[in-house]
Structure formats: structure tokens, C-alpha cells
Specification:
mainly alpha
Length: 226
């Protein structure tokens, strides 16, 4: 069985980008804590978007709510890890794929505990399309999961001709999921923006740690190749 680990492309000044991303998510979170009225005033965006909906947008919001929820997200990631393992015939590529998804998602859960921000007031919405959420709001876990999933898929593609197309599709999917969460009235706009920076923090940390993990497989690969 092949043991080639997932290759992480190098970026310039990763620590600098990590610090900037961390400061951005902390700044957005602190803004919500110190200016709660300004944060809750974003409900006007939710109301406007929700009021200009359709049956298709209702189904989109409901699908995003269900299939990108934590239980389904973990299950989907597990299934994809197995598929990657089978298709790539590489255990470490599959492990790297799963960790890449988790790296973008886990920091968001940590920030949720830190800031403990309430969800938008769903009673102000005209069209309630998903159940009322009772957990914390900032940042958006659904958006972060999609960011992690598309990031992991980009790593699998590598430098192939399809990568530019996948980059565009990834951006579109993230924007659509963010819109669906705002439309459903379960996240403010700042929640979705904050999740982008929170996910970047996790991704950049993963990029620093993963090469060291991958090197642990080198002696084993060396012995097998002899």
C-alpha cells in the first residue's frame, strides 16, 4: 500500500498571516461583546434577506442546516476519508485530508466557547425555515466546515489543471452557505465573516504541523522501499 502523505503547499510568511487572522476574529468577537447593540442591529440584514426568499432558498437553507450540522459533518468527513484512502491507496493522505477538514472547523468551536454570543432573534423573521438555534452563534460552524472541506479537496487536487476551477467553486460554495445561514436567520453577517478568519487560523496551524507529522512516515516508507 502506498504511504505518500498529503502534500501541503508552502505560503510566504505563514506566521504573519496566522497572527492577522487571529487578530481579525478576536476583533470581530470583541466588537460583538463591547457593542452588543451594534451586533444585534445586523438583524436588519437577516430580515431583508429572509423577506426576499423563495421555496428554493428555503430548501437550500434547510439542506445546509441539516447536512452541514456537526453530526452529519463528522459522518461525511469520515466517509470521505475512507474514500480518499481507497482511491489514493494512501493511509496518510486520507489522514491528512481528515485533519485538514478538522483544522478549519475546531478553532471555530473554541471561539464559540470564548465569546458565547447569542443567535439572532428568530421571532423577527417573517419566514422561519429552520428550527430555532439555542447554541452560541459566533463564528459559524457550518461555514467553517465548508471551508475545511473545500480546502482539503484543493490539497488533493494539488497543481492539476482543475485546481483554478475548484478554487472558484470553493469560493462560491462558501458564499452560498454563508448566505443560507443569514437567510435562515441563525447567524449574523459578522458570524460568517468571523468564521473565515477563524478557519484560516486553524488551517495555517495545520500547515505548520502537518509536515512534521508526515515526516514520521519517512523511515517506514524507506524500509518498505528496500
Amino acid at each position: 500500500m502506498a504511504t505518500k502523505a498529503l502534500v501541503i503547499p508552502r505560503i510566504s510568511h505563514p506566521i504573519w498571516w496566522m497572527v492577522v487572522s487571529l487578530l481579525m476574529v478576536l476583533a470581530i468577537g470583541a466588537w460583538g461583546l463591547f457593542f452588543p447593540d451594534a451586533r444585534t442591529s445586523q438583524i436588519t440584514i437577516n430580515i431583508f434577506v429572509n423577506d426576499h426568499g423563495s421555496k428554493i432558498l428555503d430548501l437550500l437553507a434547510q439542506g445546509v442546516e441539516k447536512f452541514f450540522s456537526p453530526v452529519y459533518a463528522i459522518g461525511l468527513t469520515g466517509v470521505l476519508v475512507v474514500i480518499v484512502w481507497i482511491v489514493k491507496r494512501s493511509f496518510w493522505t486520507a489522514v491528512g485530508f481528515g485533519l485538514a477538514v478538522a483544522a478549519a472547523w475546531l478553532p471555530v468551536e473554541a471561539f464559540k466557547l470564548i465569546f458565547n454570543e447569542a443567535r439572532p432573534d428568530a421571532t423577527q423573521l417573517i419566514n422561519v425555515v429552520v428550527p430555532v438555534q439555542i447554541d452560541t452563534s459566533f463564528p459559524s460552524g457550518h461555514v467553517s466546515f465548508v471551508i475545511g472541506l473545500t480546502y482539503a479537496l484543493l490539497l488533493l487536487v494539488g497543481k492539476g489543471w482543475f485546481k483554478p476551477v475548484l478554487v472558484i467553486l470553493s469560493v462560491v460554495i462558501v458564499v452560498v452557505v454563508a448566505y443560507a445561514r443569514i437567510y435562515a436567520g441563525v447567524h449574523y453577517l459578522s458570524d460568517t465573516v468571523g468564521s473565515v478568519f477563524a478557519s484560516l487560523v486553524g488551517i495555517l496551524i495545520f500547515q505548520q504541523i502537518w509536515p512534521g507529522i508526515a515526516r514520521l512516515t519517512l523511515p517506514r516508507r524507506g524500509r518498505r522501499s528496500k
